[in-house]
Amino acid sequence: MDDCLIVGGGVVGLSLAYELAGHGQRVRVLERGQPGQEASWAGAGILPPGHFRTATDPYEALSGLSFELHGQWAEQLRAQTGVDTGYRRSGAIYVARTPEEVDLLRGAAAHWRAREVACEDVSPARLAELEPALAVGTILAALYVPDECQLRNPWHLRALVLGCQRRGVTIETGVGVDAFELSGGRAKRVVTPLGPRPAESFCLCGGAWTHSLLARLGVEVAMRPVRGQIALLRTSPPTLSRIVNEGRRYLVPRADGRVLVGSTEEEVGFDKRTTSAGIAGLLEFAIGLAPALAHAELERGWAGLRPGTVDGLPYLGRVPTIDNAFVAAGHARAGLGLSPGTAVVMSQLIRGEPLAVPLDLFRIPRS
Ligand SMILES: Cc1cc2nc3c(=O)[nH]c(=O)nc-3n(C[C@H](O)[C@H](O)[C@H](O)COP(=O)(O)OP(=O)(O)OC[C@H]3O[C@@H](n4cnc5c(N)ncnc54)[C@H](O)[C@@H]3O)c2cc1C
């Protein structure tokens, strides 16, 4: 029998499977589609910097731990699988083009400095030197954050799938979980169209669909899908070197000259279509910030469904009243970034070890 059965093969489920298997656990992942094809594939792969040591609350601790682990995991995955995850320290520029954004940027700078995250106020001349393609005259204030990193989501997911397989994880694709069989306050097995799958413990990592899995265990949580659209541009030669963030939108340059323009935030249910208004808004943002992008090729657009929660925090912990069922879902805009820390802490919880990060803040349910 498997030690742990994970429902959902997105970045959260695969990272947890990889980590548990690294501790000698027999792990099975059930994915109703193909692994890593939902929100995890659609994301931009931005990894904002943080330090575990200077964190002032459990969310920051999870972020800092994850940020530190990403570098280690990228090396480890490359050594184990031969796959380059695209992890690199590209650095980021944060810009403000309105007085409100200037206030927010000042707040962000104070936050980072208090936590010893490097960030530099950037004069217009320095900004033009760092990123000559930006419309410097429209920018009221800018910060340079040299440690911000990025990875290529599809590459990272491919590496995780191979890394899991190398560690003996069984990944069943096209197998959705319909229900749970319980007995004596414990989950015994999950019910799938291919038959039951028993395990010692279970973890629900179903992204935006986790609320319906929890509902089948009698637990109601307020989760909702938040659609994010992205437009992919291709430039030659490359237009930008660093990630450029403005508010909740960004330009992410890849080493091959592509630029991801993201992202919308829309509550439209489980609808993954791109829309003309969504893509047009992103293009207007991109061209306003870096006018040369008006000449870039529009390669494609896509959308994914972020797992949103009411307070923006993920659900991490034990399912109430069921001793051996756990949940790790609801990472909203930050699931790629938070995935290795989530995997380490959830693996500690499932294996009954002391936790690197206390999970009370992330308990289920909460209002
Ligand atoms: C446009 C966009 C940009 C983003 N940019 C970033 C970014 O730059 N940095 C960052 O950190 N995060 C980013 N995110 C957020 C990040 O992508 C998500 O937080 C993360 O992917 C969530 O991972 P997950 O594994 O929980 O969910 P998912 O990737 O959605 O995976 C859940 C999986 O569970 C499966 N599943 C569901 N129900 C069942 C069932 N009953 N049986 C079997 N399988 C089931 C699904 O098929 C799916 O494969 C972005 C998201 C979007 C949409």
Structure description:
This protein is of the alpha/beta class and 367 residues long. It has 2 domains: 208 residues, FAD/NAD(P)-binding domain (3-Layer(bba) Sandwich), CATH 3.50.50.60; 140 residues, D-Amino Acid Oxidase, Chain A, domain 2 (2-Layer Sandwich), CATH 3.30.9. Helix content is 31%, strand content 28%. It contains 9 helices and 18 strands. The strands form 3 sheets. Strands 1, 2, 8, 9, 10, 11, 17 and 18 form an 8-stranded mixed β-sheet that branches. Strands 5-6-4-13-14-15-12-16 form an 8-stranded mixed β-sheet, sandwiched between helices. A hairpin with a 6-residue loop joins strand 17 and strand 18. Helix 1 crosses helix 9, helix 3 packs across helix 6 and helix 3 packs across helix 9. The longest helix has 24 residues. The relative contact order is 0.20. The model has no long low-confidence stretch (mean pLDDT 97). It binds flavin-adenine dinucleotide. Flavin-adenine dinucleotide binds next to helix 1, strand 2, helix 2, strand 12 and strand 16. Flavin-adenine dinucleotide (FAD) binds next to helix 1, strand 2, helix 2, strand 12 and strand 16.
